[in-house]
Amino acid sequence: MSTGQTLGRRDSHFVDGLIPDYVRQFQAYVPSKPDRQLMLEYGAPFLHRLNNNENALGAPPAARQVIADYPLKRLSIYPSGDAFDLRQALAARFDFDADRFLVGNGSCEVITSIIKAFCERGDNIVTADKTFAVYEWVAEFSGVEARLVALLGNAFDPEAMLARIDRRTKIVFVCNPNNPTGGYWPTEVLVDFLERAGERIVVIDEAYCEFVEQSDYPDAMSLMERFPNVVVFRTFSKMYALASLRVGYLVGSAPVVDAVRRTSTTYSVNSLGQIAAQAALADTTGHLDRSRALVREAREFLGKACGEIDLPVVSGEGNYIMIKVPINDTLMYRRLMRRGFMVRSMTGFRFPGWIRVTLGDAAVMAAFADVLRDEIATLRRGATPSR
Ligand SMILES: Cc1ncc(COP(=O)(O)O)c(C=O)c1O
Predict the structure, then answer these.
(1) Which of 235, 260, 281 finishes a domain?
(2) CA of 131 to the centre of ligand 1 (A)
């Protein structure tokens, strides 16, 4: 049987002819290797992943319990194709009809589904230049123009975004709070934007909403009745710490969700993910408060530690902080990897010279601060790394 690696010249030429230009030009995302491989490559004694904004506390107790109790005989049975029970639980929690929720294999999948549902060639989406890149990537590999607007301070720039919207703009993506800067639109700004955005979909991606502690942060779901073009994205990957099970969802008005359902893959959300998400949602043990407290303390601690060594930081809402480093961010990433800490190098987010660090466990934050201090001191002495 012929595989990709054994394709002859003629075969590969034949494949090339089938690939649309916008797919050919798109550079595939390269996921990180498994821990054991990375530890081997970097000679790291351990590995703390501080690169993906995961919750160090782990999943709420009830979610762990349903996973531990999961009956093995269910492994051979397909999951609910439309996450029926989870949607009922979301409906009860947020007081909307269950049909207004669409659950995906992480919210990344619903990004793809909504672009497929509304955009065709010649259309565009509008979002920021320095934000979660998947909106831009999906648009690009779907042959749809992604119009990227510079941030205003650390949040999206409403006026500049309105100026880029035209009649072919089908979707506007607003990351609130923004990953990676932590800036957000307060209620007033969001409402004003929605009043002026016209007849197009406005996605409010609230992947980190549960971490936000500011009282003027909007409840975008409560705006959906007034603005039927609003679609809210949420995920169980961050606050609820179920990232490996891949569960995210959108909620919007019935006709919008009905359109997106047509382009969604049925059965893409596994059973374990569905029941764990349902249990996580019902948590009454104070998981959210504990997680928020952990992040608050970590933000304060790391902010102060960076201040002491004169490293500028950007940190707003969300469980992450950006740190400006005095060398190329990829080189800094490698130095930190050798010491057992994986951060996000930010050139890919258009923030060259910055790293993003997930805020979490106090002991890990302290160990990270020690290593960062040490590396910065080495750099400032002009010495080469110790290992
Ligand atoms: C802003 C934002 N939206 C969506 C996602 C995707 O989350 P998931 O696909 O795990 O639900 C992420 C993940 O990092 C994110 O930062």
Answers:
(1) 281
(2) 11
